[in-house]
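Z., the sequence and structure:
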Amino acid sequence: MRLKILKKPKSKIFEELKKSSRAEWLQEESFRTLAKRLEQDFEIPEEWIQIESYPVSSKYIFVSVHILYREDENEYLYYLNEPKLDFVENEIVKEVINKLEYAPITPEEIKTKTKKELLKEKVDKILDDFRIKLEGSSYYKVFYYILKNTILFDKITGLMFDPQIEDISCNGYNIPIYVFHRKYGNVKTNIFFDDPDELDAFVVKLAQQCGKHISIAEPMVDATMPDGSRIQMTLG
């Protein structure tokens, strides 16, 4: 299984224009704050030196990126630092995703709401129905994982939102994903798929998001992702 994504450059000016209200701007500022907190709390692994770090955020997205260097191996590492879930939060994520399969969606909702808005409404209703109370950052952590594991890009979600990344390459399971970073070039990441089934399911999901089908009969797909990025996928 091979996967290569050539990301579409995003204009910061365009992103600013998309913000429809001061309330939305303030909300995005809160995610930027959460991302900065992740950056500050990051613990550098032993034998690595941190060269640079920066927060990455968008609406409901907050991660931090840490460029590490290991002198004895003369190697750089792109470390994607995501919010950590405790046991209860992790169980809530799994349970809500399971319940979402049975949450009805009307044609009118699809026409009038974005995928994120629709997902948030459904998630909030499930939490309310089961009287699950999540406060502050705990709610946003849970929603981040639900979002990335449903309508976004699973393990590579943070990479897709990092404007410093130009392309993403995956050459199989148990092999680190590589990125092309504008400043550091081709760099190994701390992200990989644990087994072939996980990777296959991910590629099938990406193909579906692009309106394509990939299978043993049609093992190669070249498509455009919803955000305009180009993707090449090979099954097997």
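Confidence is low (pLDDT under 50) at residues 11-22. The chain has one domain: 2-234.

Let me know what you think.
H.
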